[in-house]
């Protein structure tokens, strides 16, 4: 005799409180024969079908009017492949039963996921279209070890959490289910009854595509094909290469003039990419493009780490954009945010009712500054989720490097906290040892798995060895943003020139620690918001002096050791602060030729000249590549130095940061000969006063500054000039 399930078991299943649906549903051997059980709400009649013949081999009885069916297949002893013919609202549908399929996750994957060493967890977790036993559908899996029940809900099941409860793999805390007929393009979520019995509706942490905000459903779609960095792109990331980065917020670089709506990924490919190439930049850096709920976070509060935001189009549109950048010879860097995530209900917060991805104690798991949550880097599955994500963007989209945001907030437990608001590590210190290990591991894995890709750290403290290997006690990044250089030089430039002589060291101090890291010199988005003013508006004086100061500063920046980064709008001297809700002020370039055009031409020429001469970039991180010629003339606010390549070729850089021209300014040099004025920020071509040296000067055998030969120059007001030695 068949023993039908107890009523309380059926009640628990239908109510969504039965955590082991495979023990009840599907085909089971009983003393009476093979018994098939199915939960099919709203069905009126159910038959078991033999797929080979299409014949009906048994009818299932409705044991509960809410949709529980059960029946014994006569004269059958061995389980077989079957389908269900279901009558819904007068129409018969032939379906495959999700509960006839075996476990999905292989033992090795389960082991690696639990161990936190699965390099590509996204290949197993999430939603993956698949064919099983000849049946097309989608396999779903999600990590929620403390949930009482997890179901897949979506367009394929009327968003009804009763219909597709998942199997729990207790050894890993992962829930899984293959749903026949669920196909790419359909929306889904995970419905959880959490550890406290509360119903939660969550987006897939591993979703490859998501809905446009404010909607939060995930989209079934396949994995992009793997890609590798070409040899040219690998070389372009090298320490000895010219790296000039154009940092962009895709939502506000340019907008449609008629409705202020965003440009799409494809429109950006057609407009932004050629612009960046024409301006001479080598790299394009994107503010975070991961799906995020709040526009005002600029992407820095990501909710869907694996999904490019739908604001600008589909995932394939984003791939089109990346491919267009590569075709134009640009490397693409992605701003990556493993430092925190938002508290929105649809995201990772309290995922299964517990602090699963975040720390439970707000002294460890809550960012007061940003009202966001902090990942628990010490939990293996969490660090695995993040490391895998870094690889995902590089391997699946061809991203050439990751810029990691707010590293200081990750590696210090007392970041922006008062005494008593943070918990020391197990050694009593302030360092977040788990975050440090996570960053080292991420950088090591990226280096091993994706040759040529790089990482850059935005780290605002003096933590030793950010861009040094872990074996030396470092974090293993390739580059570090030099925020100290940025603050010092901007503080100097905002001064009235008459006061600059008293702050001379702000321009020279950077060389005292230049050898400690592989630096990028950033003028980023953070410097043109929140009342800081635009870079142009920080410059002192009248309009002429503001532009002259800015041009001299850019000439200094492009010559100083370190790779370059400029946020959009700075290249044409936007006058107002950046506003993420509107386009850059492109109208400043309309009409006749003006000062903004001059700055734009200068940035283009700086990029091209910087790339042309190895002396300006080859030895950025080698002391042989830099030498002061005049460093102590604070009275005149003059600085002169040499940049040098590995072959000994030199370029002389001279800056005058006062509005007073310096005529017959003599200084000693290493290499006598004729020196050509390669670039002059005071040129009339850039709307300067056009003072200078008539194209070239010849050295004199007159000792100066401890050297046997010297040059006598005219240093234009508020200017930087570059001199190249001509062949004899």
UniProtKB/TrEMBL annotation:
CDD domains cross-referenced by the UniProt entry: AmyAc_Glg_BE, E_set_GBE_prok_N
Q: In which pathway does it act?
A: Glycan biosynthesis; glycogen biosynthesis
Q: What is its EC number?
A: 2.4.1.18
Substrates-to-products reaction catalysed:
Transfers a segment of a (1->4)-alpha-D-glucan chain to a primary hydroxy group in a similar glucan chain
| Record-linked Pfam families | Alpha-amylase, Alpha-amylase_C, CBM_48, GlgB_N
InterPro entries, A to Z: A-amylase/branching_C, Branching_enzy, GH, GH13_cat_dom, GlgB, GlgB_N, GlgB_N_E_set_prok, Glyco_hydro_13_N
UniProt entry keywords in alphabetical sequence: Carbohydrate metabolism, Glycogen biosynthesis, Glycogen metabolism, Glycosidase, Glycosyltransferase, Hydrolase, Transferase
Enzyme class comes to transferase
Active-site residues? Answer: 405, 458
For this chain, one GO molecular function annotation is: 1,4-alpha-glucan branching enzyme activity
Q: What does the UniProt function comment say about this protein?
A: Catalyzes the formation of the alpha-1,6-glucosidic linkages in glycogen by scission of a 1,4-alpha-linked oligosaccharide from growing alpha-1,4-glucan chains and the subsequent attachment of the oligosaccharide to the alpha-1,6 position.
Family label: Belongs to the glycosyl hydrolase 13 family. GlgB subfamily.
- Oligomeric form and interacting partners: Monomer.
- What protein am I looking at? 1,4-alpha-glucan branching enzyme GlgB
Q: Which organism is it from?
A: Buttiauxella ferragutiae ATCC 51602
């Amino acid at each position: 005799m068949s023993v039908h399930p107890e009523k309380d078991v059926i009640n628990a299943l239908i109510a969504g409180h039965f955590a082991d649906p495979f023990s009840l549903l599907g085909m089971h051997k009983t003393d009476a024969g093979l018994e098939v059980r199915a939960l099919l709400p709203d069905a009126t009649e159910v038959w078991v079908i033999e797929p080979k013949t299409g014949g009906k081999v048994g009818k299932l009885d409705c044991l509960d009017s809410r949709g529980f069916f059960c029946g014994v297949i006569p004269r059958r002893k061995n389980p077989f492949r079957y389908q269900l013919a279901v009558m819904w609202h007068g129409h018969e549908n032939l379906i495959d039963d999700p509960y006839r399929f075996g476990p999905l996750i292989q033992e090795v994957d389960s082991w690696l996921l639990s161990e936190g060493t699965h390099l590509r967890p996204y290949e197993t977790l999430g939603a993956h279209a698949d064919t099983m036993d000849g049946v097309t559908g989608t396999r779903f899996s999600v990590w929620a070890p403390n949930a009482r029940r997890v179901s897949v809900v979506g367009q394929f099941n009327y968003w009804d959490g009763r219909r597709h409860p998942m199997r729990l793999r207790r050894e890993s805390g992962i829930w899984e289910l293959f749903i026949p007929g669920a196909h790419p393009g359909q929306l889904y979520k995970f419905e959880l009854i959490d550890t406290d019995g509360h119903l939660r509706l969550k987006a897939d942490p591993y979703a490859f595509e998501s809905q446009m905000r404010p909607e939060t459903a995930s989209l079934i779609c396949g994995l992009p094909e793997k890609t590798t960095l070409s040899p040219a792109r690998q070389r372009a990331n090298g320490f000895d290469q010219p790296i000039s980065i154009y940092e962009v917020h895709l939502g506000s670089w340019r907008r449609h003039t008629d409705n202020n709506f965003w440009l799409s990924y494809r429109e950006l490919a057609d407009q932004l990419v050629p612009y960046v190439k024409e301006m001479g930049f080598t790299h394009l850096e994107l503010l975070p493009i991961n799906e995020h709920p709040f526009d005002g976070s600029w992407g820095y509060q990501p909710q869907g780490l694996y999904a490019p935001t739908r604001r600008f189009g589909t995932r394939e549109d984003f791939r089109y954009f990346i491919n267009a950048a590569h075709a134009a010879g640009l490397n693409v860097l992605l701003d990556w945010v493993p430092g925190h995530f938002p508290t929105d209900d649809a995201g990772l917060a309290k995922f299964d009712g517990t602090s699963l991805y975040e720390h439970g104690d707000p002294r460890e798991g809550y960012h007061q500054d940003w009202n966001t949550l902090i990942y628990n880097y010490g939990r293996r599955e969490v660090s695995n989720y993040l490391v895998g994500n870094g690889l995902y963007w590089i391997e699946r989209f061809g991203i050439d490097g990751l810029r990691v945001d707010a590293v200081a907030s990750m590696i210090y437990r007392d970041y922006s906290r008062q005494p008593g608001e943070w918990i020391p590590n197990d050694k009593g210190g302030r360092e977040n040892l788990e975050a440090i290990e996570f960053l080292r591991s991420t950088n090591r894995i990226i280096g091993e798995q994706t040759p040529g890709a790089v990482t850059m750290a935005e780290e605002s403290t003096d933590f030793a060895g950010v861009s040094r290997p872990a074996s030396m006690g470092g974090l293993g990044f390739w580059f570090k943003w030099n925020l100290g250089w940025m603050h010092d030089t901007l503080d100097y430039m905002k001064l009235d020139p008459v006061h600059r002589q008293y702050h001379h060291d702000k321009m020279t101090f950077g060389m005292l620690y230049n050898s400690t890291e592989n630096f990028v010199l950033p003028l980023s988005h953070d410097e043109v918001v929140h009342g800081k003013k635009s870079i142009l508006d920080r410059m002192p004086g009248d309009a002429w002096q503001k532009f002259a100061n800015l041009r001299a500063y850019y000439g200094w920046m492009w010559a100083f050791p370190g790779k370059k980064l400029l946020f959009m709008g700075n290249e044409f001297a936007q006058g107002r602060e950046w506003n993420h809700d509107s386009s850059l002020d492109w109208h400043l370039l309309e009409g006749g030729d003006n000062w903004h055009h001059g700055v734009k031409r200068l940035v283009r020429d700086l990029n091209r000249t910087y790339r042309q001469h190895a002396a300006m970039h080859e030895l950025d991180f080698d002391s042989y590549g830099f030498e002061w010629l005049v460093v102590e003339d604070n009275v005149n606010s003059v600085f002169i130095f040499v940049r040098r390549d590995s072959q000994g070729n030199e370029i002389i850089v001279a800056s005058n940061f006062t509005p007073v021209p310096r005529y017959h300014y003599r200084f000693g040099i290493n290499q006598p000969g004729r020196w050509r004025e390669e670039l002059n920020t005071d040129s009339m071509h850039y709307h300067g006063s056009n003072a200078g040296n008539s194209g070239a000067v010849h050295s004199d055998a007159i000792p100066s500054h401890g050297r046997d030969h010297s040059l006598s120059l005219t240093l234009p007001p508020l200017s930087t000039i570059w001199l190249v030695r001509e062949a004899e």
